[in-house]
């Protein structure tokens, strides 16, 4: 049986004392209380049988057997007791109770002791703390890994520039005297900046693993409390702990929780968060120099950090860890594929090509979903089909197999997606088709998935083709059904957003010149826009956006009218098979018959194979026709 800790015994003992003290002051009998005048009336009537007198308290019994208690205005004297005895009443006179001078203060002391015992117990066990100190509320919540993490740079992929930048920190931690002898000052702080899931914490652990030094990790929210001064005390305790373990690394995750710009409190006042930030600034670059403590922090909101936190001497290095390129994605996939049985048909390079924008957490989730799918279907190895389905799950959500569509909805969805696919296939600057499906997934009844490449510079011609592809679904509906539906809502949002940014941000409209009418601040958690133009300019921009979209709609409509037979073939094939791979789509466009479904491995290889694009016929739509070329 597990023994109770000492502090629990103290609390139980205090509760027993309180119960005992309360019991001393309460009557032990269940007798009813009579008024003294009523008691005298009972004596005159001869209904009282016996009495027990103690001072002014009288406990008695009536002849009918009921008990009572009453209190005289003053202690009962001997003459009165003898008079009652002469009436035939049995009278017992007890000595008066002795006054205890400590009884009045015993109960408050016991209550106070119990409160302190409870506070002691909960303060020691607050957030799982196990310190021997009575009060550790101001102690840091950091977790100390006294042994260096086993993760090294070999376990980090897709961040080669970041690893090269951080290798200098590793060299300093291994041999700090070499830098001190040269009079060099190593950066005190390194800020890792990147989108969620990009591996900021992972690479910080790899730095500690490479340098073989202790790793002290904390979260920015650990320093924020409702009590003034607690956060600053925890920062001091954190750095004192780090100095005892030096050389070491302090890693503060989500530092924006405590490092926001000062002056944002109510009235610019002395709030707790600002005190914590001030203490952090002092600890990072105060009066002590040449310490072997490196502070690393991670955030996805560098735009809101206090400028004093980013100056030289504190976080004087910012290391961006962005979404990896295709080579980095392949390396990340290979790392996360360790220990997972892969089938012979699996090509991680092809998976990397079809997952642009995925960060390390997304790729790890993709492989995990593929492993779950393979296990659910009873296979011993992960196939390419599992990876393809997992990629769709991560990007679009799970398939809604229980959703039943009527024939009209299926036909509308098939022609809608076929319109997107043909526009992407024939327009030379659009992304090629990877897959088309009319299987509902997430909130979509179907989708055309393009094979996007990692592009840093988007040309005007490519943007115009992207707008035309987005409008291809609505154009196909109008051509085939002579009616339109609500299915193009998201397509219009994408097309409008691209057209507006072409005009207001990227200077791609001759009527507006090279002026930034709208400034967009991009952050890792989304962007926000600042409008810098008049109402008249806003009206002209709205007209230009509408004109640009109308021109691209007519452009894609003309293309689909020109290839209406191809549109019919693609929609019919979608209704028969529900999903077309890139290879199957090209065969349908070229009028070739589709083969019977191939073996699973071969089918998935064809699904990810790069398919050359078909150029439009001479005299057809031109990419630069939207705004008269430019």
Automatic annotation (TrEMBL):
It is a multi-pass membrane protein. Acts as a processive, ATP-dependent zinc metallopeptidase for both cytoplasmic and membrane proteins. Plays a role in the quality control of integral membrane proteins. GO terms for cellular component: plasma membrane. The gene is ftsH. The chain crosses the membrane at residues 102-122. Residues 186-325 form the AAA+ ATPase domain. In the central section; belongs to the AAA ATPase family. Belongs to the AAA ATPase family. The keyword Cell membrane applies. Binds 1 zinc ion per subunit. InterPro entries: AAA+_ATPase, AAA_lid_3, ATPase_AAA_core, ATPase_AAA_CS, FtsH, P-loop_NTPase, Pept_M41_FtsH_extracell, Peptidase_M41. Zn(2+) binds at residues 416, 420, 491. It holds the Pfam family AAA_lid_3. ATP binds at residues 194-201. Its EC number is 3.4.24.-. Residues 621-630 have a biased composition (Gly residues). GO terms for biological process: protein catabolic process; proteolysis. Homohexamer. The active site is at 417. Keywords: ATP-binding, Cell inner membrane, Cell membrane, Hydrolase, Membrane, Metal-binding, Metalloprotease, Nucleotide-binding, Protease, Transmembrane, Transmembrane helix, Zinc. It comes from Marinithermus hydrothermalis (strain DSM 14884 / JCM 11576 / T1). PROSITE patterns: AAA (PS00674). Residues 596-630 are annotated as: Disordered. Its cofactor is Zn(2+). It is found in: Cell inner membrane; Membrane. GO terms for molecular function: ATP binding; ATP hydrolysis activity; ATP-dependent peptidase activity; metalloendopeptidase activity; zinc ion binding. This is ATP-dependent zinc metalloprotease FtsH. HAMAP family: FtsH.
